Every structure is written in structure tokens, then in C-alpha cells.
Amino acid sequence: MAKRTSILFWIFYPLLTLLAFAFVLFYFDLANGPLVLFILELIALALGATFRFLLRKRKFLFRSIPTFAFILVTVLLVSLSGPTTERKSAVNFSSPISTEVLSLANGDIKGVYSQDQKVEVYTGIPYAKAPVGDLRWKEPQDPENWDGVKDCSYFAPRAMQKDGNAVMSSLVDIYSAKGWYPDYNMTPRQDMSEDCLYLNIWKPHTEEKNLPILFYIHGGSLTSGTTGFDDYNGEEMARHGVIFINVAYRLGVFGFFANEELKAESPNHTTGNYGLLDQIKALEWVNKNAEYFNGDKNNITIAGESAGSSCVSALCTSPLSKGLFKRAIGESSSLAIKNPPHTFRSVDYAYKADKKIMDEYKCSTIAEMRKIKAEDLVKTSLAPQQVMVDGYVLEKQPYEVYQEKNNNEEILLNGFNVKEADAFVVPKFLFSPTNKDNIQERLAAYFNQDIADKLVKVYEKEIQEDAFTTFNEIISVFWFMNPHHEWCRIALDAGVKVYSYQFTKENKYHGNYHAGELIYAYGNVRRDKHTVRYDESDALLSDKMVTYWSNFAKTGDPNSAGLPTWNPYSVEKNNLLEFNNEVKEITDPYLKTYPIIQEYMDSLETN
Q1: Do 128 and 182 fall into the same domain?
Q2: Do 447 and 360 lie in a common domain?
Q3: Which helix H or strand E contains 110, and what residues bound it?
Q4: Is 51 within a domain?
Q5: Using CA atoms, how far apart are residues 111 and 97, in angstroms rounded to an integer?
Q6: What does the alpha-carbon distance between residue 167 and residue 82 come to, in Å, rounded to a whole number?
């Protein structure tokens, strides 16, 4: 019996130790917590295995002590293994050199230089008062003056938002990267606060004046996001002679909560669009301060991706932003369509939906809602993530403003990626993939039976070959491509010159999924810390894209010598510039789908 027990020990305990090591190796990379916890867990595993070996001939109770101790330590360390929260530095290297003092309208600031000292970086500049206390759910107020020199070498805290589970986020990254590439660079999360109305500036280190300005609005479904995201770091844009500014704004329940009592107390009779009002206030700040940092207030281009692009299309049609910018860049979202498929809601729906938030917190007045701690309010399960026609920020739906030719931009650059919806659709049907037997039923659930029948008929050949990819493409067209197609056409009708694109480049990470183009367009491929994700072909494409984007910000024409010609969009040609290893003009590949999708959109009532 003793011999048998010994054999079992030598077979199963090493196996269990190996499995425990695999768990430690995998989980602590996914959890993205402090490296010290990973080291402590490895020590606990080593000690547990050692003492279990030394006690192998003792009674069961003694033999079990190392195992139970290891389990308890593991449970404790796992509970502590989430990312830490820290202030995010303006640059990603140690001991940066401070800039000279820069004087702004409200006071003096000092930032830091890039590593080669060719770019000045100023982060965490206040453009409005903190929207806290009685200023929660009010129009943003002008910032107060400050004394002394403000240190602008760290990003300000993110706007209040729910943080997803770090392990699930890492699993999504593994899915996106089509592989696991552990690095154990335990990246902390950026700190967070309701006091969030700050912007950041990357400018060329030069005495040259009247530099063009690119004003960027981050995405995140209007419920998440940060100006400190490395994919749209502005250093490379500044190297191309463009001042890059990105702006934080109120999100979720803090930025898009709609309430009739709030409308009544507002001097402008507005509610529900506080995040948009923040963006407009930031644009006003940039116009007021441009000369202080050598910018040209008459040459401002607004840009955004995903929900940020939805905001761009809203700002293109808001009477409050008229004259504050000249051109617009919209990537992967648009509201310039009748009944937008996302990021937009009707007034009546907004009031009814957001009343449920008050009920959730058992509040009957706005005064009571303003007393709720931000850390508690952000936990609402009903956070709004849409803008609305409030009669002040938006007097009409964006498509109506374009129809009346009252939009604000002179030239528009916009486009989408080939697999926009995959990251949203695939997880939903992860355990029941779409196939040729269930695709019609799923299309009917998304649209209606008549539209589903028409789509199946148009895509008959593709469905037989690959129903999974076909379904994802149709949803991509519905959510993203068709709104951009409509934006192009309605902008052309309003007299706007339009440049349009499709991003199709694959890589070892997000590839051509939603947001995959960002790191290319803003010139950060070579700066990515995960070298396995991108190769030289990605870097070369990024060089082209950041040149197109910066050219557009300078003159309204993305073209220059050495680049493939990007012709303006025309209704007759339906021409897009395809961004891949080869940059070339193509015909929009979704022309057969748009009429069916638009038939469905026109039949809807705004909800």
C-alpha cells in the first residue's frame, strides 16, 4: 500500500505542480497586476512543492499542510492581482527634460520634451472648471486662472467609467492577436476622477507660427476611453508639423444623462449632451489659446474614431461649433444618417430611459442625484451612451442639417475598416457560430424577415462559401459602412469635398477590426511596445497614413509627392482609397448591400 501511495505521489504531484505553474504563468499575465505578485506566487508554488516533497512520508494531515497553504496564498494573491492605478506620464521614458514655460490665457504651464527634444508635450491642461458638486450635469464653465507654473507632465485622470475585468480584457486581446504573447509588463491603469475636463498638446519644438491644429476626440461608446491611449499619441503628428490636441469629456451617466428638471434649470434649456458641450468648450479654449502655442485658430481640423467619430458628425451639425473648426475626419462611425444605428436616441426615449437611473438610486430629485458619490453613480447598469436632439447643441438630426446645407465643415475625410463588427458580433455567438443553416434566422432577428430574405438572396453565393464571414460583413455594413456611405453622399450634396477610405491591412493584433487603423493613422506602429504585433509592412503603411492625415490637417488635401493619389469621392465612381500593403483606389465593395440596409433604416422610427 505504501509503495502504491509513493507511486501515485511521484506521478500525480509533479503533474499537479505543473498544472499549478501553468495557471500561475497564464493567469498572472492575464490579470495584468503588479509583477511582485507574480513573483510571490512563484515563490509560494516552489515552497509548496518543496515542503510537500519533504513531508511525503508523514501522515496525511501533515502532508496536506503545504498544499492547503499554497491554495490559500494563491486565493489571496489572485484577489490582489488586478492592475494598479497610477498617474500616467506624458512620455514613455524616464527622466524627461522639462520645456520652457508656456504662457496661456489662464496661466503658465510647463511640459516635457520628447526623447529627441523635437516635440513639446503638455498634458493635463484644464479647459473648464471641474464638473463636480453643483456643476454636475451643467454646461461646462470657463476654467479659473492659476498662479505659478502648472506642471503638465502627467495626464489628468480619465473621466469616470466602469473598468472591465482585466482577465477578460486580456482574453479579448489574445483573440484579437490570434495568439498568446506573454510579456509580464504589468501595465497599471490610469487614474480616474469626475474632475476630468482636461486636454493635451503635442507641438513641434519650433518657433514657427500659425501651425495647423488637429483636435482629436477619443472613442469608447461614450462610456469609456482616455486621452492617454498610446495608439493616438500625438508625437508623430507633431513631427509632421501639426499640433495634435486630444480632449477628455464626460462619459456615460455623467456626460449624457437626460432629465427634464435639468433642462428647466439650464439657462440654455439643454440636457443630455454634456459630453458634446465639453468638446465644444474645449474647441473654444483651443481657438482662444491657439496663438499662445503657435497654432492657427483658422486652420483647425476635428477628428475622432468610433463614438469620437459620431461626435465629429454631431459637431459638424451643431450651431454651437460653427466657425470653431474648418475640416473634419471621421473614422468608423457617423450620425449623418436617418435613424443612426447607434450613439443616438430620441428625446422621449432618453427621458424614459434615464428616469430608470434615478429609480435605480431611489432618487426623486436632481439635488439627490448630485449627492451620490461619483464612485457609486458610475456603477449604474443603465449608463446612457447616445446623444440626442436637445434643441441647443443639436437643433435637428445631423442628416437634416446636411440636407439644409448648414453643416460646419468645408472638407471631410472619412472611412471604415473591413471587419468593423467582428469584435462585437463574434463574442455574442462564440459558442454558436453563424452558419448557412441559421444565418437567415439571425438576420431576421437583427432586421426583419423581409430584409433578411433580401439579404440572403443578394449574398447567396457568399453564404454558401462562408456564412460566418458573410453575417459579420452584413452587420458591419449596417453599423458602420452604410452610415459612412450616407455621410459621404449627403456631405457631397451639401457642397463638401469628401475623401473616403477602407482599411483592410491584417497584422498580428487588431488587424482590420474596429479601431485597427488608429495606430497607423496617427503614426504609432513603431512605438508599440509589443513588437510581435507589427512588422515592417505595417510601419511603411503607417508612414503613408500619417502623411495623408497630416497633409489633410494642413491644407485639406491629403495628397503629396510620393504617395498614391487619393481622389475625392464621387457618387458616380463610389471610389475609396484602400489601405493595405498596397495603397490603391477601389470601388466601394458594399454597393449591393446599401439599398437593402437603407430600406430598413428608412422604415424605422427613432427610438
Answers
A1: no
A2: yes
A3: strand 107-110
A4: yes
A5: 9
A6: 8
Residues 321 and 209 in one domain: yes
Mark whether 149 and 20 lie in a shared domain. no
pTM exceeds 0.90: yes
Strand partners of residue 103 = 108
Examine residue 504 and state whether it is found in any structural domain, yes or no.
Answer: yes
Who wins on pLDDT, 604 or 461?
461
Separation CA 164–CA 501 (nearest Å): 32
Rounded distance between C-alpha atoms, residue 215 and residue 161, angstroms? 22
Count of structural domains within the chain: 2
Query: Where are the strands (E) in 136-219, listed by range?
Result: 149-151, 189-190, 198-204, 211-217
DSSP state of 343: S
Q: Which own/partner pairs from 12-21 qualify as long-range (CB within 8 Å, at least 24 positions apart)?
A: 13/49, 13/52, 13/53, 17/45, 17/49, 20/45, 20/70, 20/74, 21/45
Residues 6+ apart with CB under 8 A from 367: none
Residue labelled with grid coordinates 473621466: 159
Domain range for 248: 85-159+194-602
Q: Of 173, 193, 213, which residue constitutes the final position of a domain?
A: 193
Neighbouring C-beta atoms of residue 433, cutoff 10 Å = 11
517-544 pLDDT tens trace: 999 999 999 998 777 889 999 999 999 9
Q: 220: phi > 0 → left, psi -120 to 50 → alpha, else beta; which?
A: left
Same domain, 431 and 365: yes
Beta bridge partners of 215: 245, 302
CA distance 217 to 197: 13
Known catalytic membership, residue 318: no
C-alpha cell at 292: 499662445
- CA 542 to CA 455: how far, in whole Å? 35
In a domain, 607, yes or no: no
User: Does residue 155 share a domain with residue 166?
Assistant: no
Q: Are residues 284 and 411 in the same domain?
A: yes
The single residue of 306, 310, 318, 542 carrying the catalytic annotation is 306
Residues 212 and 294 in one domain: yes
Give tens-digit pLDDT for 298-320: 999 999 999 999 999 999 999 99
End-to-end C-alpha distance for the chain, whole angstroms: 73
Cα separation of 316 and 330, whole Å?
10
Give the CATH number for residue 531: 3.40.50.1820
What does the CA dihedral 251, 252, 254, 258 come to, rounded to 10 degrees? Answer: 130
